[in-house]
Design a protein that fits this description.
Elements (H helix, E strand, L loop, with lengths): L4 H39 L4 H11 L3 H5 L9 H12 L2 H15 L1
């Protein structure tokens, strides 16, 4: 049974919109998260245990984020983690972490 052309077109448009929307979300979030990741790394003064604990808590890794320029440059795994972060409680966790680091500084 062949898929009707109209149905195929609708699915294609839906997927294109989803990818474009994901790219837009990532491209807006990425520079902000890169700035925060750099700040955290600077304030942890290279203490990899602290950085890894923060990354584990946030469920993202800073190093790959810092090396990416745009959504199209990310791997599928990186995209999924970043979108999961954006759609979850990651921002609240991040605010708590920044507050904790600020108290230590």
């Amino acid at each position: 049974m062949e898929i009707p052309a109209e149905l195929r077109q609708q699915v294609t448009e839906m997927m294109t919109w989803r990818v474009e929307s994901e790219d837009e979300t990532i491209n807006n979030l990425l520079p902000r998260l890169q700035h925060v990741a750099k700040w955290i790394e600077d304030h942890c003064q290279g203490d990899t245990k602290k950085i890894k604990a923060i990354e584990k808590r946030l469920r993202i890794e800073f190093a790959p984020l810092l090396s990416v320029r745009f959504a199209r440059d990310m791997t599928d795994d990186q995209r999924a983690k970043l979108l999961g972060f954006a759609g979850g409680d990651g921002a609240h966790d991040l605010c708590e972490i920044l507050g904790e680091i600020g108290k230590l500084a």
